[in-house]
From TrEMBL:
SUPFAM superfamilies: Glyoxalase/Bleomycin resistance protein/Dihydroxybiphenyl dioxygenase (SSF54593)
Protein name: Catechol-2,3-dioxygenase
Superkingdom, taxonomy of origin: Bacteria
InterPro entries: Fosfomycin_Res_Enzymes (IPR051332), Glyas_Bleomycin-R_OHBP_Dase (IPR029068), Glyas_Fos-R_dOase_dom (IPR004360), Glyoxalase_1_CS (IPR018146), VOC_core (IPR037523)
Keyword Oxidoreductase: yes
Gene Ontology molecular-function annotations: dioxygenase activity; lactoylglutathione lyase activity; metal ion binding
Gene3D superfamilies: 2,3-Dihydroxybiphenyl 1,2-Dioxygenase, domain 1
This protein's UniProt keywords: Dioxygenase, Metal-binding, Oxidoreductase
Amino acid sequence: MGQSAGIKALQTGHVGLNVTDIERSLPFYAEVFGFEVLAEGEEEGRRWAFLGREGRLLVTLWQQSNSGFTASSAGLHHLSFQVETVEEVKAAEQVLRGLNAPFQYDGIVPHGEGTASGGIFFGDPDGIRLEIYAPTGADTAPAPSGSTPTCGFF
């Protein structure tokens, strides 16, 4: 596959997530990821928040869902964030444990058998599947899915 429609450089801008309760989701994302609120608003029952770091928009929250995330519907599979070191993943894991976040696997796991990259897989307050990983340092644990990508079917 090649370039399409004359696009020369492409990168993800931000990810928008539907949530059921912005009062619950906003502190979760701020505490876990260190996001700052860049903007937020409410009008006619519509609530939203733009979250980022160092002034860069990364995630938007839209309070417009009536039920939590379901893996059986088409759409987002999971949202992954890369950090520099496995120590940062461990620190995030401790914050998440303090928030009683649900984990898919127990602790840090590699992305596949014999792979150095890996991290933690967990859910937000609405069950949206999230990942925080480092490019190295996760190869000390067995891969929960063998050679199948750990972030694939969970």
